[in-house]
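ugh ok fine here u go
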Amino acid sequence: MELILIRHPRATVAPDSCVGHLDVDCAAGWEGHADRLQRMLVAPERLIASPLRRCSGIAARLGAAWSVAPEFDPRLMELNFGAWEGRRWSEIDRREQDPWPAGQLDSAPPGGESYNELLERIDAFRADLGTSFQRVALVTHAGPIRALLTRCLGLQPAAGWRFDIGYGRVSRLAERDGAWRLEALNA
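structure:
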């Protein structure tokens, strides 16, 4: 099985903004980016996306080009940042941020979710995904991509923070004979 992990392009918010479950659009030019992805990638058998607009629009465009009906799964949504949603990171009190994400996997922003809760969502998603498909494309966010990378590669959960997942970039995992390997990161 091959998992194609596509992070959405930059959203229509200030660059320093905390955006998780906040449902915002992609910045101008996302259509051209989706068209380039469609030409660059081999069409998958399944296309699954976060239902948030910055992912669902790309999935719909890719699905139309590939003749694959996109599926939408809320477990692929970004980490819920609760009270921090839409605020600039620089405006959030440093004392609130300090335990998060520096290894405190059970810490959560006020009213949000912890990284461990995100990992639980991703574990449930992976269990339901099964292995009957050769190629599955996911249009999602940096948090779920990091979680998928750590889970598939058998890394410690905190290692996920080391992956710098770029906007609009593609990473690829391949499973062969029961072992996953990273074939591309931020292509």
